[in-house]
Amino acid sequence: MTDEELRNYIDESVADAIRRLADDGLIKKQSDIKYAQVAKRLYEFYQSDALVDDTMFQAINEISDDTYFRIIPLYYEKQMTIENLAVDFGVDISTIVRNKKRLCLRIYDWIFEKESAIVPPTVLEEIKRKTE
Q: What is the spatial distance between Cα 25 and Cα 67, in angstroms, rounded to a whole number?
Protein backbone atom coordinates (compact mmCIF):
# COMPACT_ATOMS: atom_id res chain seq x y z
CA MET A 1 0.00 0.00 0.00
CA THR A 2 1.43 3.39 -1.01
CA ASP A 3 1.54 6.40 1.31
CA GLU A 4 -1.27 8.04 -0.63
CA GLU A 5 -3.45 4.92 -0.45
CA LEU A 6 -2.76 4.69 3.28
CA ARG A 7 -3.71 8.37 3.77
CA ASN A 8 -6.94 7.86 1.79
CA TYR A 9 -7.76 4.75 3.83
CA ILE A 10 -7.18 6.63 7.09
CA ASP A 11 -9.24 9.63 5.90
CA GLU A 12 -12.13 7.37 4.90
CA SER A 13 -11.93 5.44 8.18
CA VAL A 14 -11.93 8.62 10.27
CA ALA A 15 -14.81 10.12 8.26
CA ASP A 16 -16.79 6.89 8.69
CA ALA A 17 -16.12 6.79 12.44
CA ILE A 18 -17.18 10.43 12.86
CA ARG A 19 -20.33 9.81 10.81
CA ARG A 20 -21.25 6.80 13.00
CA LEU A 21 -20.59 8.74 16.22
CA ALA A 22 -22.77 11.59 14.98
CA ASP A 23 -25.52 9.17 13.90
CA ASP A 24 -25.46 7.63 17.39
CA GLY A 25 -25.73 11.08 18.99
CA LEU A 26 -22.33 10.81 20.63
CA ILE A 27 -20.97 13.95 18.98
CA LYS A 28 -22.77 17.03 17.70
CA LYS A 29 -22.19 19.43 14.87
CA GLN A 30 -21.11 22.91 15.90
CA SER A 31 -24.33 24.35 14.46
CA ASP A 32 -26.38 22.01 16.68
CA ILE A 33 -24.50 23.20 19.76
CA LYS A 34 -25.06 26.85 18.81
CA TYR A 35 -28.72 26.13 18.11
CA ALA A 36 -29.20 24.50 21.54
CA GLN A 37 -27.51 27.41 23.30
CA VAL A 38 -29.57 30.12 21.62
CA ALA A 39 -32.79 28.09 21.95
CA LYS A 40 -32.24 27.91 25.72
CA ARG A 41 -31.51 31.63 25.86
CA LEU A 42 -34.61 32.45 23.78
CA TYR A 43 -36.78 30.32 26.03
CA GLU A 44 -35.41 32.08 29.12
CA PHE A 45 -35.81 35.47 27.44
CA TYR A 46 -39.47 34.94 26.59
CA GLN A 47 -40.34 33.25 29.89
CA SER A 48 -38.95 36.06 32.08
CA ASP A 49 -41.41 38.62 33.41
CA ALA A 50 -39.25 41.50 32.24
CA LEU A 51 -37.50 41.06 28.92
CA VAL A 52 -34.19 42.21 30.38
CA ASP A 53 -31.71 40.62 27.96
CA ASP A 54 -31.01 43.71 25.87
CA THR A 55 -28.64 41.87 23.53
CA MET A 56 -31.29 39.23 22.82
CA PHE A 57 -33.90 41.94 22.28
CA GLN A 58 -31.63 43.63 19.73
CA ALA A 59 -30.82 40.31 18.01
CA ILE A 60 -34.52 39.52 17.67
CA ASN A 61 -35.11 42.97 16.17
CA GLU A 62 -32.33 42.29 13.67
CA ILE A 63 -34.23 39.33 12.20
CA SER A 64 -37.68 40.93 12.34
CA ASP A 65 -37.71 41.55 8.58
CA ASP A 66 -37.44 37.82 7.82
CA THR A 67 -40.48 36.13 6.29
CA TYR A 68 -40.47 33.46 9.00
CA PHE A 69 -39.60 35.78 11.91
CA ARG A 70 -42.92 35.13 13.68
CA ILE A 71 -41.82 31.54 14.33
CA ILE A 72 -39.52 32.75 17.12
CA PRO A 73 -42.03 34.56 19.36
CA LEU A 74 -44.83 32.15 18.55
CA TYR A 75 -42.71 29.13 19.49
CA TYR A 76 -40.78 30.50 22.48
CA GLU A 77 -43.28 32.98 23.93
CA LYS A 78 -46.67 31.60 22.93
CA GLN A 79 -45.35 28.01 23.01
CA MET A 80 -47.05 27.01 19.78
CA THR A 81 -46.15 23.56 18.55
CA ILE A 82 -44.22 23.01 15.33
CA GLU A 83 -47.34 21.38 13.87
CA ASN A 84 -49.54 24.39 14.71
CA LEU A 85 -46.93 26.75 13.30
CA ALA A 86 -46.92 24.78 10.05
CA VAL A 87 -50.70 25.11 9.81
CA ASP A 88 -50.53 28.83 10.70
CA PHE A 89 -47.90 29.50 8.01
CA GLY A 90 -49.48 27.10 5.52
CA VAL A 91 -46.25 25.17 5.04
CA ASP A 92 -44.78 21.76 5.76
CA ILE A 93 -43.42 20.93 9.23
CA SER A 94 -39.90 20.60 7.79
CA THR A 95 -40.10 24.22 6.56
CA ILE A 96 -40.86 25.42 10.09
CA VAL A 97 -38.07 23.33 11.62
CA ARG A 98 -35.54 24.46 9.02
CA ASN A 99 -36.43 28.15 9.33
CA LYS A 100 -36.59 28.08 13.13
CA LYS A 101 -33.08 26.67 13.22
CA ARG A 102 -31.86 29.15 10.59
CA LEU A 103 -33.27 32.09 12.55
CA CYS A 104 -31.81 30.80 15.82
CA LEU A 105 -28.40 30.53 14.19
CA ARG A 106 -28.71 34.09 12.85
CA ILE A 107 -29.54 35.25 16.38
CA TYR A 108 -26.57 33.30 17.76
CA ASP A 109 -24.21 34.84 15.20
CA TRP A 110 -25.49 38.36 15.91
CA ILE A 111 -25.17 37.91 19.68
CA PHE A 112 -21.73 36.32 19.39
CA GLU A 113 -20.54 39.18 17.20
CA LYS A 114 -21.79 41.80 19.68
CA GLU A 115 -20.66 40.02 22.83
CA SER A 116 -17.23 39.14 21.46
CA ALA A 117 -16.68 42.81 20.59
CA ILE A 118 -16.45 43.41 24.33
CA VAL A 119 -13.03 41.91 24.88
CA PRO A 120 -12.04 41.54 28.53
CA PRO A 121 -8.45 42.45 29.40
CA THR A 122 -6.00 39.62 29.15
CA VAL A 123 -4.52 38.12 32.26
CA LEU A 124 -1.20 39.78 31.49
CA GLU A 125 -2.81 43.22 31.15
CA GLU A 126 -4.64 42.67 34.42
CA ILE A 127 -1.41 41.71 36.22
CA LYS A 128 0.37 44.77 34.81
CA ARG A 129 -2.45 47.05 35.92
CA LYS A 130 -2.42 45.65 39.46
CA THR A 131 1.35 45.95 39.86
CA GLU A 132 1.64 49.54 38.64
A: 32
Residues whose CB falls within 8 Å of the CB of residue 86, separated by 6 or more in sequence, listed in order: 92, 93, 95, 96
pTM of the model: 0.68
Contact between 81 and 33 (Cβ < 8 Å): no
Q: CB count, 10 Å around CB of 48?
A: 10
DSSP per-residue codes, 39-103? HHHHHHHHHSSS---HHHHHHHHHTTTSTTTTHHHHHHTS---HHHHHHHHTS-HHHHHHHHHHH
Domain residue limits, the chain: 30-131
> CA-to-CA distance for 15 and 130, rounded, in angstroms?
49
User: pLDDT tens string for the chain (132 positions)?
Assistant: 788 888 888 989 988 888 888 788 787 778 888 899 999 999 999 988 766 778 899 999 999 999 999 999 999 999 999 999 999 999 999 999 999 999 999 999 999 887 765 544 555 565 556 666
Closest by Cα among 99, 107, 93, 104 to 35: 104
